[in-house]
Amino acid sequence: MPIGRWAPLSHPDVASVEVDDLLRALADPTRRQIVRLLLAEGDRPCGTFGLPVAASTLSHHFRTLRKAGILRQYDDGRQRMNTLRLDELDERFPGLVRTVLDAS
Amino acid sequence: MPIGRWAPLSHPDVASVEVDDLLRALADPTRRQIVRLLLAEGDRPCGTFGLPVAASTLSHHFRTLRKAGILRQYDDGRQRMNTLRLDELDERFPGLVRTVLDAS
DNA sequence: CGGTGTATTCGACACACATCGAAAACACCG
DNA sequence: CGGTGTTTTCGATGTGTGTCGAATACACCG
Q1: Looking at the domain assignment, is residue B2 inside a domain?
Q2: String of b and e for A5-18 (b: at least 16 CB within 10 Å)?
């Protein structure tokens, strides 16, 4: 069962997400790759992305994406799962995420 | 007649525009405002945007937008005109610019 | 030519960011 | 409890960026 962890895991309300933060978050190729994989193959724990960066760097990217309202994280035993908040984002910024991903 | 100026005014080929540069360029509110005004009211010289930044800062933003392939600049007498390269961009990144602007 | 208007360049500054390795936090398992 | 696996935090580092003022470059006009 998903219980808490040392870090509170705060997720911003979609209404309070700034477009600046969203665009800056999506302007990084590693982060776009994360989003792309989540969109294509569904929820995944942090350690299963196979990206060529250090674990600490990856953690930084997940935090950035979470604070930008792009994904939601929850703990599941030993690992931390990631879910795309696509529906919520599409309500506030219609088509943005998809269009950006398609552009790459 | 638009002649040259001290700076060569180089414009990248749309095919060589990286999505990273485009997104980074659009991730700045001042630059988005520039693009928005160009889209809404057509070509304008640099000095007619009424934005709350110093002239040198504005010049930096125009250079960023030009290098990202977002606008084209040409000299007209004393002033430098700016044109949106929307059609070209839409061919390479369909709907991106519009979607981003609509999101703000 | 000299003055005025428009825009860029330069140098500087503060700040943000991507990246890493090492260390720490937490969950699970034996 | 002790070990293992997963992820985060911390500190450091190099790089990029938005901002400005002052100086410079160019076009036009009288």
Answers
A1: no
A2: eeeeeeeeeeeebe
Mean pLDDT by runs of 10 across the 104 residues of chain B is 59 97 98 98 98 98 98 96 98 98 94
Q: Is residue B79 part of a domain?
A: yes
Determine the distance in angstroms separating the CA of B47 from the nearest CA of chain A, rounded to an integer.
Answer: 25
Task: Look up the domain containing B25 and give its range.
Answer: 16-103
The count of structural domains within chain B is: 1
Residue entry with tokens 């942090």: A46
Nearest CB among B23, B93, B104 relative to A27 is that of: B23
Q: Among B48, B98, B50, B47, which Cα is nearest to B70's?
A: B98
Q: How far is B75 from chain A (nearest CA, A)?
A: 31
